[in-house]
């Protein structure tokens, strides 16, 4: 998806009818996911000495570059973020149903169902396959966002990539991935100081890049200008 404002690439699924078959990027992601040692990515435990940034990076991104591009999109995304933050306070488990509720707000739609066929992104260069196990596999991955054995930043990064590469919705998957990442952090009281660096293209078979994303999340969760929470 081409844009003049910073935003996650591949935000819309391309109809399967527009492209032929190709390698399954979802299968490639599942293989790369298994290769990463998420407990040893080098991402610090960002819950230690918990801090809150002077500026909420996600909210600032919405009211800044997103709003300049599309005020309606920004308003919906910010409303979904506020809903996600409220759910985080209640420590609601991360499920497809929870994502779908935020996604209805993001899209201004009455329904946000799991896709019913293959999806494409990056101009058709990535195909995300679908089989009878895909929704259950996705649910299992989302449940792992609460695995305390994995450092928080690594869990948040992994969840972001799970949503991006399972690509569950017909539209808005990159926005959903960012919401999921911020939700995993918010459940443990952590807020990012900025999200712009997260919005570059990610590739399903890039295990090293996945580990690097965990480190980046840890960096962005440790702002230099912050106030300590009580």
In short:
The protein has helices at 25-35, 57-69, 71-89, 96-107, 134-143, 152-166, 173-186, 207-220; strands at 51-53, 119-121, 126-128, 226-228.
Description:
The protein has 230 residues and is mainly α. It has a single domain, classed as Fic-like fold (Orthogonal Bundle), CATH 1.10.3290. The chain is built from 8 helices and 4 strands; from the N terminus they run αβαααββααααβ. Strands 1-4 form a two-stranded antiparallel sheet. A two-stranded antiparallel sheet has the order 2-3. Helix 5 (134-143) packs antiparallel against helix 6. The chain is globular, with a radius of gyration of 16 Å. The termini are far apart. The model is unreliable at 1-10 and 225-230 (pLDDT under 50).
Provide tags for this entry.
mainly alpha, disordered C terminus, two-stranded antiparallel ribbon, 230 residues, Fic-like fold, 5% strand, globular, disordered N terminus
Radius of gyration: 16 Å
User: Please, what is the average pLDDT?
Assistant: 88
Low-pLDDT sequence parts: 1-10, 225-230
Total strand segments: 4
Strand arrangement, largest sheet? 1-4
Produce the secondary structure layout.
Blueprint: H1 25-35, E1 51-53, H2 57-69, H3 71-89, H4 96-107, E2 119-121, E3 126-128, H5 134-143, H6 152-166, H7 173-186, H8 207-220, E4 226-228
Antiparallel strand pairs: 1-4, 2-3
Helix pairs in contact: 1-6, 2-3, 3-4, 3-7, 4-7, 5-6, 6-7, 6-8
């Amino acid at each position: 998806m081409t844009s003049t404002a910073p935003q996650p690439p591949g935000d819309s699924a391309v109809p399967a009818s527009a492209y032929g078959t190709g390698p399954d990027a979802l299968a490639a992601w599942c293989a790369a996911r298994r290769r990463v040692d998420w407990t040893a990515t080098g991402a610090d435990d960002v819950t230690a000495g918990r801090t809150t940034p002077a500026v909420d990076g996600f909210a600032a991104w919405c009211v800044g570059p997103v709003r300049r591009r599309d005020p309606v999109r920004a308003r919906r995304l910010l409303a979904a973020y506020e809903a996600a933050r409220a759910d985080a306070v209640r420590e609601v488990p991360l499920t497809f149903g929870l994502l779908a509720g935020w996604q209805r707000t993001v899209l201004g739609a009455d329904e946000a169902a799991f896709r019913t066929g293959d999806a494409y992104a990056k101009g058709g260069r990535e195909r995300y396959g679908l089989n009878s196990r895909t929704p259950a596999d996705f649910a299992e991955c989302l449940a792992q966002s609460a695995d305390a054995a994995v450092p928080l930043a690594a869990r948040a990064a992994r969840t972001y990539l799970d949503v991006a590469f399972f690509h569950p919705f017909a539209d808005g998957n990159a926005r959903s991935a960012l919401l999921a990442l911020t939700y995993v952090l918010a459940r443990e009281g952590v807020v990012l100081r900025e999200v712009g660096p997260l919005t570059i293209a990610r590739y399903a078979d890039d295990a090293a890049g996945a580990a690097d994303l965990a480190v980046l999340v840890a960096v962005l969760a440790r702002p230099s200008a912050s106030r300590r929470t009580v």
